[in-house]
């Protein structure tokens, strides 16, 4: 997918919502547990009920790996379903990988080629050669962790370095790498005041923004400081949407929550 | 496993060698490709031929994920084999994970509980709450990336922060976390001159050291500056051992390479 195609989808759906498929067996409706693949059945129902309101879906690989082989199978079925039934949506493997060059290339193959996700999240700690194998894949995006939404972000990411705070050094340095136009960045909504500074460094790249809703970030604040002329934002909500109900009508309830956010987004876009 | 048990094994085998099972279908002997699970067959042969010379085995998850479901199955079979046949060895899931707290807990479950690895490698970028779910698992170890062996280590890890270089801030900060006695650290052998400084900050923790051999690090230099009174080092070699030959007798060749290193280690220990 190209940035232009993503932008077109945002205009068409009047939405820049990403739904996080953090599918947890302990939290999904009990009646699904009797099916052969509860995780996939849950995801399918959520996707079917929300795909006109969301431009992106983001399974977090941890929730799948926690079930070993069976979970990995559910992940593969989920991405196959998205690619076949809803090829217009932007898919994100929220894997937070990163290793030495030849090893990162293996992860890039797994997520961007074999499973055919549009993008994968990557941790920057190991530097350029750990990220470049992802960036080398044509028409795919690498979403680099910059300033995350959790408390632990304050441990290292905002440390003052030679140059600037660490997360800004990550932004600046990564902009010098080959194919940097294929970069997006994770910036937590819980840190809305930082978006102004971030946009000075990366005016054009899309930002993937977790932390709206359950974690307390404000959609309005993020848009005020983070939006660019191609929107440039994917706002993720996971638990607030997918666990709106754990009863039979869970998918309709999830749709209601997604609709609330999409309606706010339509206003912000107009 | 406890540190004491690991130390006992080191004394018994006169070795602190870790063998990296970076098993790549493109590099294993061709005759194995006809078997049902070439990756597992390769790993099994390597383990059988070297387990008296190595105290630890470290599959890098990227090489398994690159084959999707089948690869994940090979990983599970490999760790099961190690746990059943060689319960004395220290097993490392080289996964370099790290996510917000509830998500890291899923990874901790997958690797330390369900698959029952003794340890898992974790990236520090997201800070305390991304690491603590791993540290919370009793009698298991969390191996935090500190100063890696690749070129990209220079991009961020040695950036001067408020306090000190970033990797030193990672070492110091993580030492204040609960259960920090369950921490080990990745420090690349290609940076032997750094070990002296590192040992001032973390005198007691084990260091997992990649980069000896193929990547050019010196075993003698690492031991000179990095060894403590419980040895405190696990020296990893992957390609130099497991790809010593790609012919029928590959396992014996791998043993020869492992023996060369073990003999050097026995000398350094005496």
From TrEMBL, chains A, B:
Belongs to the OMP decarboxylase family. Type 2 subfamily. Pfam families: OMPdecase. This is Orotidine 5'-phosphate decarboxylase. It comes from Flavobacterium arcticum. GO terms for molecular function: orotidine-5'-phosphate decarboxylase activity. One of its GO terms (biological process) is 'de novo' pyrimidine nucleobase biosynthetic process. Signal peptide: none annotated. Residues 16-254 form the Orotidine 5'-phosphate decarboxylase domain. HAMAP family: OMPdecase_type2. PANTHER family: OROTIDINE 5'-PHOSPHATE DECARBOXYLASE. The active site is at residue 96. Pathway: Pyrimidine metabolism; UMP biosynthesis via de novo pathway; UMP from orotate: step 2/2. It catalyses: orotidine 5'-phosphate + H(+) = UMP + CO2. Keywords: Decarboxylase, Lyase, Pyrimidine biosynthesis.
């Amino acid at each position: 997918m190209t940035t232009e195609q993503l932008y077109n989808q945002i205009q068409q759906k009047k939405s820049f919502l990403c739904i996080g498929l953090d599918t947890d067996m302990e939290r999904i409706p009990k009646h699904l547990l009797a099916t052969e693949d509860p995780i996939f059945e849950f995801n399918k129902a959520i996707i079917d009920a929300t795909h006109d309101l969301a431009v992106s879906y983001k399974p977090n690989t941890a929730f799948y790996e926690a079930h070993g082989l069976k979970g990995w199978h559910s992940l593969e079925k989920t991405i196959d379903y998205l690619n076949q039934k809803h090829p217009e949506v932007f898919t994100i493997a929220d894997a937070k990988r990163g290793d030495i060059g030849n090893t990162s290339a293996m992860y890039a193959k797994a997520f961007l080629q074999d499973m055919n996700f549009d993008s994968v999240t990557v941790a920057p700690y190991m530097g350029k050669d750990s990220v470049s194998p992802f960036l080398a894949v044509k028409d795919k995006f690498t979403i680099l962790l910059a300033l995350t939404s959790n408390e632990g972000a304050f441990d290292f990411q905002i440390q003052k370095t030679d140059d600037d705070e660490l997360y800004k050094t990550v932004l600046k340095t990564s902009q010098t790498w080959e194919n940097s136009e294929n970069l997006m960045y994770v910036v937590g909504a819980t840190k809305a005041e930082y978006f102004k500074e971030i946009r000075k460094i990366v005016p054009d790249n899309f930002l993937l923004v977790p932390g709206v809703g359950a974690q307390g970030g404000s959609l309005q604040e993020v848009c005020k400081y983070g939006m660019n002329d191609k929107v440039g934002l994917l706002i993720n909500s996971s638990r607030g949407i997918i666990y709106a109900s754990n009863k039979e009508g869970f998918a309709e309830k999830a749709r209601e929550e997604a609709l609330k956010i999409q309606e706010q987004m339509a206003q912000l876009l107009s």
